[in-house]
## 1
Amino acid sequence: MDHEQFANLINLEELWLGKNKIEIIEGVSNLKKLRRLDVQSNRLTSVDNLAGLEDTLEELYLAHNGIDNEGAMKASGLMLEFKELTTLDLSKNRLTSCKPFAHMITLNELWVSSNAIEAYEDVEPISVLGTREGACLTEVYMEHNPIYNDFEYRKKLKEIIPSLLQIDANIIGGTGYGSVMPKSPEEIMEQMKRLQEKAVQRAKEEQEGGGEGNE
């Protein structure tokens, strides 16, 4: 990611770079209006050089890379104080803990499916996102981690993060003990529509620009 590629795209709001061979995030600090950044399915082992996006970035997609705990805790990356970040996707990486996200009080959705989170102690760091004043974490996707095999998986996640309304594909009941209610057909269709729209957008960007964003 050469900064010269994006130097003149000062009004860019979305940048989709999935399925390339990117090893380092860079060159985006001057994109002062960027709201969505997608660097999925690349060769990242760390998240760096996001300084300058703290006030605008709303969605960050980093699934299918090789990011571990250390790589997720870089000072110029996820450790920044993002003011608008609501959606973070780090599915299918190498995380063993949720510690890198403990300060992200604006998060609504956290995707960490298919990582290596083994114990509930490793989830505890984000308990503040469900209890701290102003925190609003309502959806967590944590299936296909080692803890997912626990019989009381959803119950315990709900206890750790009381604000949760959805765990994986399941709406959480109002008992406070992790009971699960199936989604209505309307809710399922709406979720499918959102996923389809994202997939179409990504495919369009890849076909038109080979992964390059357009201003």
Note: The CA atoms of residues 38 and 61 lie 5 Å apart.
## 2
Amino acid sequence: MSDRTIPADGIGMHLYTMRKSLAEDYPGTLQRLAEIGYRTVGVSGRHGHTAEEIRSYADAAGLKIALEHVGYPRLTDDWEGALADVQTLGGEWIVVPSLPAELRTPDGFREAAAAFTKAGQLAKQQGLKLLFHNHGFDFAEVDGQVLFDILLDEVEPDLLGFELDLYWVVDGGHDPAEYFRNHPGRFPALHVKDMAEDGSFADVGTGKIDFAAIFAEAESGGVQQWLVEHDAPTDEWDSARASYRGLTELRY
């Protein structure tokens, strides 16, 4: 390990963590996140606001929107509209957060790979990059094939990257650092989410995931954004402050 730290402009909050506060006061929530020290956010749910409004709230708070999560059905229902919204938000990446349950088979992942190839081409034409966000079930192994790896293998790197959720990779029995080494440049964004000893979610730096060992390989993985996430915080603001502290104090 060295004394490297995460670049300040790469430390963000995935807004799913803050969904209760956002529902009550979206612009005020972004302002408070900026005051803690966060520089970027990942949008997950609009809470009744338009892309234009959310962009104005982020601008007012001095935050950059890195990406937005967009449900898989929009690949066919309204992909052009989804891309336009991410451009309005000022994001760099458009992220599909999960596959429908019926596609979580080898054939389903291959079907998704074909859909991602087409969607990724259109995103590229619009100056954006399509990413996929993983869960633990994406690392199920069927007939010797890890489902997640089908997307890595079957979609060209310039058409699909990944927002790697570190908690769910570990939950799925795999090593994020190994993915960074074996698939360089494919992982521009991370969900930095810690795991308590009992397997539940934890604030960054308070659990058992060895982030230092993972981040030592982050440059190989192409990581540009470290987005904090906690799926079920007891107190969103305590969690946001604790995870920011854990991320900024980390050395790797």
Note: The chain has a mean pLDDT of 98.
